[in-house]
Write a structure and sequence with these properties.
Radius of gyration: 38 Å
Structural class: alpha+beta
Helix content: 25-40%
Number of domains: 3
Mean pLDDT: 75
Number of helices: 2
Strand content: 15-25%
Oligomer: single chain
Order of helices and strands: HEEHEEEEEE
Distance between the termini: 87 Å
Length: 170
Amino acid sequence: MKNFTRNNNRKQKEQFSNFLKFFTQRIYVYKWELNIFGLICIFCGLLAGGVFTSLKVWESIKASGELNQAWSFANAGDYSLSDSSLVEVVNNSARLKVRNYENDSNTKLLLHLDEVSGNPADSSGTPNTVTANNVTYAAGNLNNSATLNGSTSQISAADSGFSFAPTSQK
């Protein structure tokens, strides 16, 4: 019985050795020396990469139909705005509302130049006096806009004691 087990172990070792020889035998592809195990790994990597890439491409193809949908805003009961201060609905189309810049603690002068007439208003919160000479106001792309003629028009702010000197850089 001992002899049979010993022979059986030898056969298993021999089969395993043959298995390893098969996967480690040298194969020449172009100028590269590879073994079968290496080729199998390369093939599996290419296969997996191709599958994952094609899945991503398929997701993009499926999503492209969603990008071309037409939305109707004709009936206000069909939708709700999450923030009506940011979005406006006009003539069956939705768009972002025009929002002016807001001042903060560092703002020294803030001119929106969206007046209808007169001098521009300073929205910085500091008491700056702003004067406009030969400036006209008209409807702009977002709000009203100031039009300067390029030669005699000017907008000036009186000196209010602050400086625009550059800060030191390290």
